[in-house]
C-alpha cells in the first residue's frame, strides 16, 4: 500500500522537481502545496504519512507549518528542508521535526530519509511492542515544562535567566535538575545551587535533554526490584550521553546530530524503568533469567515479554514526536544492523557509548553486558576509530583503561 507524502514549497519549480523525484515510485503517492495555509487545508481533507516543508516561506514558515502539523496531525512524520547552514535555524526546528534535510539534496538522500522513517514506523507498529505497552497502567505524559523550555529556546533571544526562571517555577523539576547537575556523572568541579547556575554550566541545548530525562525518571523513582538500581541506570544514561556527544563532536558531526546523540544517550534505557513499573513481575523474571543464564538483558526480556526495553522506550519517544534519529538510536542501540542507517549518527554513537560505559565503569549488571556490533562499525567505516573513542571516553568519565 502506497504512503502519502506532501511537499510544501513556495517555489513551483522546486515542487515540480520534488514530484519528479518520486514519479513512478511504487511506494509513494505525491501531493504538493505552495503555502503552509494550503497545506494545512489539504491535510484536513486527507491524511498524509509524511510532510516535507521548506524552512523559509512567506506568510507561514516551514517551522510554523510543522508545529501545527505536530499538534493537529501527530501521526504524520515531519521533514524540514533548508538551504541555511545556520546552527540556530536548525536548532529551532528540532522540537517540531523528525528529520532535517539541507539543500541542495539529491534523490538518494531523500529516499534514504524516507526509507528510514518508513522502517522506523514499521518497527514501532510491531504488535508485540504495542501489546506489551498496552499492559501498562499508564504512560508518562509529554512534559509541559519541556514545551515551555523549547518555546524560550525558539524565541528571538533565548536567555539563561528566562530558561532558569521556567525551571524554577517547578520545585520538583528544580530539585531533580540540581541532583542531576551535581551528580558524579556530570563531573562538574563545584557544587551548583540554583537553576541559573545549572543552565549556565551545562548550556542551553543540554537543558532540553535534562528536562526530558528528569521527567521520565521522576515518574518511576519508586521502582524497587532485586538486581535493579534506578540510580545506577540514571548514572549510566548520563555517562552514555556524554560519551555519545563526545564521539559525535570528535567526528565533527552536525550540531543537531550531536544534541540528538546526547538526548538518546540519556534516554536509551528508560524502557527498563517502564517495564519495572508496568510489568514488575515479568521484568523481575527477565532480570533473574539474565543473571542465571548469563544472557544480555534484552534477550531475556524478549523471551519473557516478547519485546525489549529498547522497543518500549522507542515507542514512548515516538508517541512524543521526538526526532526520528533519537527514536531510531534508542530502538536499535543493541542491534544497529537492524536499522537502515549506514552512516555515523546518533545510533552508532549510542551503540558504542553503551558498550564503552559498561566496560569502563565496571558496574555489576544482571547477565552479560552489551557487545559491540563489529560488522556495523565496519559498515559505517568506523571500526578503526574505536581505540580513539575508548581512550577519549576513559578520560571523559574518569576511568582508566588498559589494553
What does this protein structure show overall?
- It is a single chain.
- With 403 residues, the chain is an alpha/beta fold.
- The protein folds into two domains: 3-125, Response regulator (Rossmann fold); 136-396, Orthogonal Bundle (Hypothetical protein af1432).
- 59% of the residues lie in helices and 7% in strands.
- It contains 21 helices and five strands.
- The protein has a five-stranded parallel β-sheet with strand order 2-1-3-4-5, sandwiched between helices.
- Strand 3 (50-54), helix 3 (62-72) and strand 4 form a beta-alpha-beta unit.
Separation of the first and last Cα atoms? 52 Å
Number of helices: 21
Q: Supply the number of structural domains.
A: 2
What's the overall average pLDDT, rounded? 84
Order of helices and strands: EHEHEHEHEHHHHHHHHHHHHHHHHH
For the sheet with most strands, the description reads: 5 strands, parallel
**Count of extended strands:** 5
Strand content: 5-15%
Shape: globular
The CATH homologous superfamily of the largest domain = Hypothetical protein af1432
CATH domain topology of the largest domain? Hypothetical protein af1432
User: Pairing-aware structural class of the strands and helices?
Assistant: alpha/beta
- The percent range for helix content is 55-70%
Low-confidence parts, pLDDT < 50 over ≥5 residues? 399-403
Sheet with the most strands: spatial strand order: 2-1-3-4-5
CATH class of the largest domain: Mainly Alpha
The appropriate CATH architecture of the largest domain is Orthogonal Bundle
Cα gyration radius (Å): 21 Å
Amino acid at each position: 500500500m502506497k504512503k502519502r507524502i506532501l511537499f510544501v514549497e513556495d517555489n513551483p519549480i522546486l515542487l515540480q522537481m520534488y514530484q519528479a523525484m518520486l514519479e513512478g515510485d511504487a511506494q509513494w503517492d505525491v501531493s504538493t502545496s505552495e503555502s503552509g495555509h494550503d497545506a494545512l487545508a489539504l491535510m484536513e481533507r486527507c491524511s498524509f504519512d509524511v510532510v516535507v516543508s521548506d524552512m523559509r516561506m512567506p506568510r507561514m514558515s516551514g517551522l510554523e507549518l510543522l508545529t501545527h502539523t505536530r499538534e493537529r496531525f501527530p501521526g504524520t512524520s515531519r521533514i524540514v528542508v533548508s538551504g541555511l547552514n545556520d546552527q540556530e535555524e536548525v536548532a529551532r526546528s528540532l522540537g517540531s521535526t523528525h528529520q532535517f534535510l539541507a539543500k541542495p539534496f539529491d534523490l538518494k538522500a531523500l529516499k534514504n530519509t524516507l526509507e528510514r522513517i518508513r522502517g522506523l514506523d514499521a518497527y514501532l507498529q510491531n504488535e508485540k511492542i504495542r501489546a506489551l505497552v498496552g499492559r501498562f497502567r499508564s504512560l508518562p505524559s509529554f512534559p509541559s515544562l519541556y514545551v515551555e523550555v523549547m518555546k524560550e529556546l525558539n524565541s528571538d533571544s533565548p536567555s539563561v535567566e528566562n530558561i532558569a526562571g521556567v525551571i524554577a517555577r517547578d520545585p520538583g523539576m528544580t530539585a531533580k535538575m540540581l541532583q542531576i547537575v551535581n551528580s558524579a556523572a556530570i563531573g562538574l568541579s563545584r557544587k551548583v545551587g540554583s537553576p541559573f547556575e545549572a543552565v549556565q554550566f551545562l548550556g542551553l541545548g543540554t537543558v532540553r535533554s535534562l528536562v526530558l530525562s528528569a521527567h521520565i525518571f521522576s515518574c518511576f523513582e519508586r521502582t524497587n526490584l532485586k538486581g535493579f538500581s534506578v540510580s545506577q541506570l540514571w548514572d549510566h544514561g548520563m555517562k552514555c550521553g556524554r560519551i555519545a556527544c563526545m564521539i559525535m563532536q570528535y567526528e565533527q558531526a552536525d550540531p543537531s546530530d550531536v544534541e540528538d546523540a546526547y538526548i538518546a544517550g540519556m534516554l536509551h534505557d528508560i524502557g527498563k524503568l517502564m517495564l519495572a513499573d508496568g510489568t514488575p513481575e515479568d521484568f523481575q523474571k527477565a532480570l533473574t533469567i539474565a543473571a542465571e543464564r548469563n544472557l544480555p538483558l534484552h534477550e531475556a526480556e524478549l523471551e519473557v515479554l516478547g519485546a525489549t526495553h529498547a522497543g518500549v522506550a522507542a515507542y514512548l519517544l515516538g508517541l512524543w514526536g521526538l526526532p526520528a534519529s533519537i527514536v531510531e538510536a534508542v530502538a536499535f542501540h543493541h542491534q544497529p544492523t537492524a536499522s537502515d542507517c549506514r552512516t555515523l549518527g546518533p545510533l552508532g554513537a549510542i551503540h558504542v557509548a553503551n558498550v564503552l560505559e559498561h566496560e569502563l565503569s565496571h558496574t555489576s549488571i544482571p547477565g552479560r553486558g552489551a557487545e559491540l556490533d563489529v560488522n556495523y562499525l565496519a559498515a559505517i567505516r568506523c571500526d578503526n576509530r574505536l581505540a580513539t573513542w575508548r581512550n577519549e571516553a576513559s578520560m571523559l568519565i574518569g576511568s582508566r583503561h588498559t589494553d
